[in-house]
Amino acid sequence: MGYVLAPPRWAARSAPIYRRADHFTGLTGIDWHGWDGSIWPLRDGGPDRARRGVVLLSARGLGFGEQDSHESESPALHGAAYQGYRLATREVHLAIEIYSHVSGADMLDLDAAFARSMLPATSDSRRGPGHLVVTGPAGQRRWLELYPAHRGDWTMDHDPFLHGWRTIGQYLRAYRPLWTGDPLDETGTVFTAAPAGGAFLGGGPPGGSGPPFQIGQSSTLAQARASNPGEEPVWLTWDLTGPGESWTIGVDGHETTITTHLGAGETLHIDTDPLARTITTPAGQQVWPQITGDPWAPLPPDPPGTDQGQPITLRVTGGDGTVRLGPIHPLYHRAW
Fold first, then answer.
1. How many CA atoms are closer than 13 Å to the CA of 260, on its beta-carbon side?
2. What is the spatial distance between Cα 207 and Cα 204, in angstroms, rounded to a whole number?
């Protein structure tokens, strides 16, 4: 729901009061996606809310995360020099009511099903984290990967199956504290090398429209742009598809060269995220082929007031293979 400024009910110099505007649209969804595939519409309890549901009463931890600032000091100077920041692990607290007007047995089933979605994650892939997905008034989504963090402090002050409801305070932790937004392009962008001296085409599937730039088997440097509408740098994924012998990819002037033979149609997948950095061969093996140049660099946010994006550089030698830049998921500090 939105709010508009209304005239004060008292003296002209009094603080303003607010009233709801009927034509405003609020958040259209706050959904918990459990590790087990279940989806719980916490904002309104779901389509069966007249009979049973799980609803969000309040939430903490959806705004700016806890910031650790870095600084340097000198005994000869007053104060300190700001040296940047990092975000600590984010803690989220959800106050939730579980209810059923059907029966005590139905209340028990509903309570157990929701509790199953909040089981602690395991260190292997058997049981992973969940996601809290917030959908804004215009349909824009942001989500946060969350790990249930139970404290064992729930107090039972009535029989929930006799009365048909209970409230819980659920703690969760986000080890990646930034919110992830929907990508501008769900499939990424494929860049295709034309014959030597031709154009290197980008924008959508191979042969799609986009700004032309020159590349050939002579290793001419190609330049394109990629947009990051978020608030923080984003680590990219790349798919290199042969034929080719050497591949140079770069972001914002930082270039990395990978020397590896790829036959026609063979693809090398690269994830540059420092927390999940992998290079996967066409056979599905995790390797780290010979790499030279600058370390991997993330894609910075677009400069304020522009949507032209940041420069990326591409070079293929020994063939006319393609480079696919994976979907770019922007990162944000808040849920909206």
1. 24
2. 8
Which pLDDT tens digit goes with each residue over 112-132?
A: 999 999 999 999 889 999 999
C-alpha–C-alpha distance, residues 325 and 329, integer Å: 12
**Which of 175 and 77 is assigned the larger pLDDT?**
175
Is residue 241 within 8 A of residue 322, CB to CB? The reply is yes
Q: How far apart are the first and last CA of the chain?
A: 14
d(CA 131, CA 59): 14
Cis peptide before 148 (omega within 30 of 0): no
Distance CA(234)–CA(326), nearest Å, equals 11
CB–CB of 208/127 below 8 Å? no
The closest alpha carbon to 202, from 217, 181, 223, belongs to 223
Distance from C-alpha of 334 to C-alpha of 301, rounded to nearest angstrom: 16
Q: Greatest CA span in the chain, whole angstroms?
A: 79
**Pairing outcome for strands 237-241 and 322-325:** antiparallel
> What number of other Cβ atoms are within 10 A of residue 250's Cβ?
20
Q: Helices in the chain by DSSP H: which ranges? A: 104-117, 160-163
Cα angle 151, 113, 336 (rounded to 5 degrees) comes to 70
Q: How far apart (Å, rounded) are the C-alpha atoms in residues 57 and 43?
A: 9
Tokens coding 282: 């066409």
Which residue type, as a one-letter code, is found at position 16? P
CB atoms within 10 A of CB 188: 19
SS3 of 64-109: the string is CCCEEEEEECCCCCCCCEEEEEEECCEEEEEEEEEEECCCHHHHHH
Binned at pLDDT 50, 70 and 90, residue 38 comes out as very high
What is the value of pTM for the model shown? 0.82
Distance CA 121, CA 117 (A): 10
